[in-house]
Every structure is written in structure tokens, then in C-alpha cells.
Amino acid sequence: MTPSVLVFDSGVGGLSVLQHIRQQMPGVPLHYLMDSAAFPYGTKDDELLIQRVVDVCMAGIRELQPAMLVIACNTASTLALPSLRRLLDIPVVGVVPAIKTAASLCEDGCIGLLATPATVHRPYTDDLIRDFAGHCQVSRFGSAELVEWAEDYLETAAQPAGLYDHLQPWFARQPAMSHVVLGCTHFPLLKPLLQQAWPAITWVDSGEAIARRVATLLPVNSHDCQTGPLSCFWTDRQRRPEGALKYLVTLGKVHQHGCLGPDFVIQDIEPV
Ligand code: DGL
Q: Residues 39, 121: one domain?
């Protein structure tokens, strides 16, 4: 059996990473797990979040037996990667803001970091800026609104009315930014709208690089051309994640979907 990969996020954001994995390795079976019962992560307390991420990921791994875990969430990765790596004997790939890439592209200008309120203030983020962007000026903007808008956009395709007014005062600051890091996996899902509103900006995210990293860690025979199955699981019993399911069917057949219940067992498994 081809080894599968479990991709995890609080909501739909990790799909922006999953789609690159799918593109680079269409044969690999992919499970998408979203902790929708605890969404959003970007405004939650750190201690609470570490335990939550560990509990949900461990439950997902028990149920799905993947060969690799991808934490497709900057907010969770900048906090919980060490705990997960201590507990697991499969590779754990995390997503952190692509400060290094943006800083190398920008040389000596000003770059922006657009992420959740939690990620912009993390010591992990301070370290990334100190280690890789010493020659740049880095302007940070924490937004919980963009996370919600990305969720809505996937479900309804409705353009968020407040997007321009929300971000334009930041873009108007001097010195002007040339590159902006999308340091939350939800944000690349809004990229067509961001590009339209601020066409001079180069947007940088980690999706493609993460997919390349996954490819190097997976056994070679899993890179065949057959299309691998997709599945989708979530934690909120009250609400089916319609936006995520809609997006996944554009990438291939969703063989299973269901809720990872409070007792951490996957329930209501159905094909789409
Ligand atoms: N997609 C997530 C990230 O990359 C988290 C969004 C949230 O739940 O606040 O940070």
C-alpha cells in the first residue's frame, strides 16, 4: 500500500499546502484533518494550543496510520513542533513563515509579514527575523479577519467586502514593502484577491517548498502517476466543513469524510 500523508490545520488553510503536495505527488494518498471545533487557533492561548494540537494530531495518527504528518499551520508549527516530534516516530513537517525566502529575494528593502495575531508575536518569528532578515526592515501585521474571510471565500466564493480597508493603511506605511510573506496558510487561498488589490507586491508563501520537503522524505515508490485517494476529517460535530469539501473535490475524488469525535474516533465516514 502507498504510504499516506496526514495534513493538519485548524481550518481550511492547510489546503493551500495540500494542493501543492497533490500537484507534485498526485499518487500519494492524502488525509486532511481540520480542528474545526477549536478554530481559530490564531487568537488562542499558547499552552492550551500546544496540548490541543498534540491531542488531535495523535488521535488522527492513531486512526489513519499515515507515514508522515504535515502541520500545515504556522500558528501550530511555531509552537507545537518540538512536542510532536518528541512523541512521534514518523516524520513531522511544519510550516513556518517564509521570512528567509522573502529576505533573500528582497535584498535590502522592506518586507511585510502578514500572519495570525499569535504568529506575528511568537519568539519563533523573532528568531526567524533575526537570523535571516537582519538586512531588511520587517513590518508585521496580525489579522484574525483574513482567516475568517478565507474560510468564507472557500465556502461561498463571495469577496470579503472589508479586505481593502483592512490592509491598505498597512500598505500605505513608509518605507514601502516590495515583498509580503503570507505567514498563515489561510492567506494564499485569498491570493487572487490580494494580487488584484496590491499588484506591485510579490507574495511569498511556503506551500511549494513544503511539498518539495514532503517529496524528499517519502519513499520513492509513492511518487507514481496514479491518482491517490483523498479524505477529509474534522472535529466540530455541529458543522460539516462545506468549503473544505468543495475545494478538495477540485483536486480529485474524496473517498472518505467524517468527524473525529470528542472520544477521538472518526465517525460518519462517507464517500463524497
Ligand atoms: N492556518 C493557520 C496558520 O497558518 C491558523 C489560522 C487560525 O486558526 O487562526 O496560522
A: no
CATH code of the domain in which 253 resides: 3.40.50.1860
- Residue 272: pLDDT above 90? no
The reported pTM is: 0.95
Q: Domain total for the chain? A: 2
Q: What pLDDT, on the 0 to 100 scale, is given for residue 186?
A: 98
Distance (angstroms) between ligand 1 centre and the Cα of 148 equals: 10
In the block, residue with C-alpha cell 484574525: 144
Domain that holds residue 252: 5-95+209-268
Ligand 1 center to residue 3 CA distance, Å?
26
User: What's the pLDDT at 268?
Assistant: 75
User: Model confidence over 6-17: pLDDT tens digits?
Assistant: 999 999 999 999
Residue closest via CA to ligand 1's atom 9 equals 42
- Which helix (H) or strand (E) segment is 243 a member of? helix 242-249
C-alpha separations of 271 from 109, 230, 239, 259 in Å: 50, 10, 17, 13
